[in-house]
Amino acid sequence: MLAALAALVASPAARTAAAQSWFTPSFQPPQVSTRDFTLGVSANAGTAALFQWREGIDANSHFGLEGGLVDSDGSGGTKLLVGGSYAYQLTRATADQPLALLFTAGAGLAVGDGPDLFRIPVGVSVGHRFALDGGMAITPYVHPRLSLDLVTGVDDDADNTDLSIDFDIGASFEITRQLALRGSLVVSGGRFSDDVGFGLGLTITPQGLRSAGLRTARR
């Protein structure tokens, strides 16, 4: 969902300079979380530092909160990124059905220098977890999202809303059950953003909570 929080308009002329917009990937593999924390960075028309917190509601759903700062390469300056998300496990991978599907929805706001941007993205993360030797694992996934975008603080009478599509191609590499590296390429298409970005994240899952979550999911 981070693309929903980090997208911004880099100048008041964003309608004619969509390449100046900026966004981040979601870092969301297709598994519900009991609790995890992700520290991430993203580079695309600027740099961002991000923090995500996901907290389980039950065996099939979690909510998330996130925040960060972005420094745009253009004239947009620095913006604060805040938002929240919800996820629900639609399917888990089985021998007969190898893909896990996670429904996601959220809302995010980028505020600061220049126009502000509010986004409401809805999507599905799809992928499969492959166990590796030594307790490691890798989960490649795709995470397409449709977002309603609203820009404020633009001094003209043009329409300030747009429907855009964000598409993540990512992977989560579990070094241990408690530590994972996440990387993602994100492609965004819309009137307020039309660019390609990349991000890297480090995810920490507390050991006791991870074990409890696995036991709950198996019931």
Automatic annotation (TrEMBL):
Task: Give the range the annotation lists for the signal sequence.
Answer: 1-19
List UniProt keywords, sorted A-Z. Answer: Signal
Q: Does the keyword Signal apply?
A: yes
Q: What domain of life does the UniProt record list for this protein's source?
A: Bacteria
Q: What is this protein called?
A: Outer membrane protein beta-barrel domain-containing protein
> What organism does the UniProt record list as the source?
Roseisolibacter agri
